[in-house]
């Protein structure tokens, strides 16, 4: 009988752990996310103060009938030497073969607080068609004066 109990995990119990010893492994410290390396949309707080919007912006003049594929292709184009370095980095990141671009509109609500609303995703190269490629800014209810926040993953 004692032999059977030992095989089934019986037998002598293990001694209790010493007092004050944490049995759980230590939790890793969370590091702040580096947006330059990780990608991701800006937060609504990034737009909260007029004149202090995110500095890594690209100004694009387009029509409301432009679709997300056209905007993706526009962001991939090589930029002139007069353009700021950050903008060139955006262009290079958008040209990666496996790059995924996520689009969000940023606009104020009725109380003046900003809202970030994701509206679609595209892949960098058109041979990887996405359902959102053909959606136009008008289809997505873009309003003149809204920001278009593009995250490149």
UniProtKB/TrEMBL annotation:
Segments of skewed composition (Basic and acidic residues): 28-52
Highest taxon of the lineage: Eukaryota
Residue segments, region Disordered: 1-52
Family (UniProt): Belongs to the SAP18 family.
Protein name (database record): Histone deacetylase complex subunit SAP18
Upper classification of the organism: Eukaryota, Viridiplantae, Streptophyta, Embryophyta, Tracheophyta
């Amino acid at each position: 009988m004692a032999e059977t109990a030992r095989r089934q995990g019986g037998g002598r119990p293990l001694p209790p752990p010493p007092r004050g010893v944490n049995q759980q492994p230590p939790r890793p410290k969370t590091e702040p996310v580096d947006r330059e390396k990780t990608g991701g949309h800006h937060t609504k707080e990034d737009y909260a103060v007029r004149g202090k919007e995110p500095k890594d912006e690209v100004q694009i003049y387009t029509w409301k009938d432009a679709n997300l594929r056209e905007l993706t292709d526009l962001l991939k184009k090589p930029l002139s030497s007069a353009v700021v370095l950050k903008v060139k980095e955006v262009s290079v990141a958008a040209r990666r073969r496996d790059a995924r671009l996520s689009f969000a509109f940023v606009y104020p609500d009725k109380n003046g607080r900003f809202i970030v609303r994701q509206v679609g995703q595209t892949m960098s190269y058109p041979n990887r068609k996405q359902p959102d490629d053909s959606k136009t800014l008008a289809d997505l209810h873009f309003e003149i004066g809204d920001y278009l926040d593009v995250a490149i993953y």
